[in-house]
Design goal:
about 35% helix; seven-stranded mixed beta sheet; alpha/beta; 13 helices; Rossmann fold; 16 strands
Length: about 400
């Protein structure tokens, strides 16, 4: 018995063959089957099939050989019995060996049989996703499911390093679709859009769908973290140190190079983008939304935006996160949780003194609330922390996540 490690797309196809997601196929296609699919979009016998499922092997592997197929980490996944060689490709049935070992979101990598058992009787609307669903699409999915009286099955199509981001988008969408379930499916994208859609529908049917809804192509298919847009959003009281840390992070990233950096400081935005706004709650929210919009546009095009407003209200911070994630980018929330007493002690701008004297109405922390985040990716108290230490902590978060090499 010989061994071989297929490429990423072949391994994805292999997983779907073994799980039953590619039924009626049980192996890699022969030359005649490939020709049939290529010319007529159907397998011999009339079964529809929109794209060849093939594997390339070195010439040393011949007909009759049983080849152990391994993943990149060396784990044996399946055995391929070669029944035909043509060009650099081989054909034959595959048999599963041990259960595959998955990475992130392993609990969601279920087989069609497992999923079908958990689906309710009746109509099932499968939504295949290669990226986040925007608000308009979510509304359309909900309306379609209601019209069909169907359960919703969200199917993030995970492939390569972008997989976790697509799954996170599906889980977020499920929160807004009551009763929706999620299954991660390793379906590699096809260059031909029509073929890709047909293949998505075929796999959805095997997972128990009676209707298929193809999520729109993402504005940019999420790639590895260092190629994706990122927004690092600092929030905290006036005087907490957030602007100083944000500037330090900007400088450190510029020194490293490799990413386009945009810095959006709260005070600077107030003077320019939000000139004329008051400090009422409505205007403060509008100011944060404007910052979020600009940051999301930066991230949409693969840039890294650093924002440092006070952003006292949780709902508005959530809106900014949603703006960023809707364009396929990532969002990190850093709470600079320096206590009010320390912020007031510093009071370099004299704002707290004016607020205490009643000269500044609705001042955050004094006469207006600050809603502490419960979803921060990093919490920093700068009372006994140097700026270098604080910047280092944020930089470590960004580098360890792969956004900066």
């Amino acid at each position: 018995m010989t061994e071989w490690t297929p490429d990423a797309r072949e391994l994805a196809d292999l997983e779907l063959l073994l799980s039953g997601a590619y039924a009626p196929l049980t192996g890699f296609l022969t030359a005649a089957e490939v020709e049939s699919v290529t010319e007529r979009g159907r397998l011999p016998g009339g079964a529809p099939w929109p794209d060849p499922i093939m594997i390339a092997l070195p010439d040393e592997f011949g007909v009759g050989d049983r080849v152990t197929l391994k993943d990149p980490e060396g784990a044996a996944v399946a055995v391929l019995t070669i029944v035909e060689r043509y060009g650099h490709h081989a054909a034959g049935p595959v048999e599963a060996l041990d259960a595959p070992v998955y990475g992130p979101f392993a609990r969601l990598r279920r087989t069609p049989e497992q999923v079908r058992k958990d689906l309710p009787d009746g109509e099932v609307l499968a939504v295949t996703m290669r990226g986040p669903l925007d608000s308009a699409t979510l509304e359309d999915v909900a309306a379609t499911a209601e019209e069909l009286d169907a359960a919703v099955l969200l199917m993030p199509l995970v492939f390569g390093e972008s997989g976790p981001a697509v799954v996170r988008a599906a889980l977020k969408a499920a929160e807004q679709l009551p009763g929706a379930s999620v299954v991660a499916v390793p379906l590699a994208p096809r260059e031909n859009t029509e073929i890709d859609l047909e293949l998505r529908e075929h796999v959805a049917r095997n997972y128990g769908a009676t209707e298929h809804y193809a999520g729109p192509a993402p504005i940019s298919i999420p790639g590895p973290p260092h190629k994706r847009g990122l927004v690092v959003f600092f929030t905290g009281l006036s005087g907490s140190g957030k602007s100083t840390i944000a500037r330090g992070l900007r400088d450190a990233l510029l020194e490293r190079g490799g990413r386009t950096i945009t810095y959006l400081d709260g005070d600077v935005v107030r003077r320019l983008l939000s000139a004329g706004l008051t400090f009422s709650r409505e205007d403060r929210d509008l100011n944060i939304r404007r910052i979020g919009f600009v940051a999301a546009e930066v991230a949409r095009h693969g840039g890294l935006a650093i924002c440092a407003p006070i952003a006292p209200y949780a709902a508005t911070r959530d809106e900014v996160r949603a703006m960023v994630e809707e364009v396929g980018a990532d969002f990190l929330l850093v709470h600079v949780a320096t206590p009010l007493e320390e912020c007031e002690r510093r009071d370099r701008k004299g704002l707290y003194a004016k607020a205490r004297a009643g000269l500044i109405p609705a001042f955050t922390g004094i006469s207006d609330p600050y809603e502490e985040p419960e979803d921060a990716d990093l919490v920093l108290d700068t009372t006994n922390m140097t700026i270098e230490q604080a910047v280092g902590a944020v930089l470590n978060l960004v580098t360890s996540g792969g956004w900066v090499r």
